[in-house]
Amino acid sequence: VPQAPPPPAAAPAAPPAPAEPTPPEPVGPTPADVEEFKPEEVVQTLLALTAKDNPADVAMVEACCKRVRVLCRELEMCKVCDQAGAAAAVVGAMQMFRTETRVQLQALAAIVNLCSGEANDHRSKAVNSNALPNIVAAMKALIDNAEVQEMGCIALQNCCYGEDAQATERRKNAASSGAIDAVIAAMKRHEAIPAAQEVGVATLRLIVHKVPELRTTAVSAGASADWVKPIVKEGGGILSFRKGFGTSRRIRAQRGN
Predict the structure, then answer these.
(1) 0.85 exceeded by the pTM?
(2) All domains in the chain, ordered by first residue
């Protein structure tokens, strides 16, 4: 008797459904995004970036400092940046990336613009945020970079400018932070560059303005007496430095903007 044929093989099981793709991690802002940030947003971002030691954040820190610089070209935006704490945030960036030329250059330029014009309260706030010793530290760390030396000198000028009651203290603070030595060192290192000599002399004259003992200190540190001649005044104001000035005329330091 023929046997019954074996039962047909069971149909193969359906393949398992593919796993649901893992959603990508949220991506934070990019340097390009920072170009649209408002003052409070850029300050908070910069504070967050400098709260942790992450070298991968260099590009973002540079972008934030650059954004502060650009915002502070406009008077009203500069006021908002100041109120938001931009000076302290920028100083934090300088401290974290001491030898990063790009960060230091943009940070110095941000301080220049933040302290430009006649806003003496901005200057005092920047000085109280330790801007002066960090400007000096940038100049010392990057002594061979002529752009950093120039921008550092202008930042010192803008911090020291003014005829307000705190101006003399700001100048003394600059000197005690090593500004006189830093400027003289920059002039000597870049003595073949006429612009370096010009900005150096202008900076020294402003630091020692109305503080005779600082003029003596500068000469003792190696400054020529001609470098620290009293500033000619007109109508009670500083003729040679009518206002602290911003970076709009410092094309090389603007890095394409």
Answers:
(1) no
(2) 31-247 (1.25.10.10)
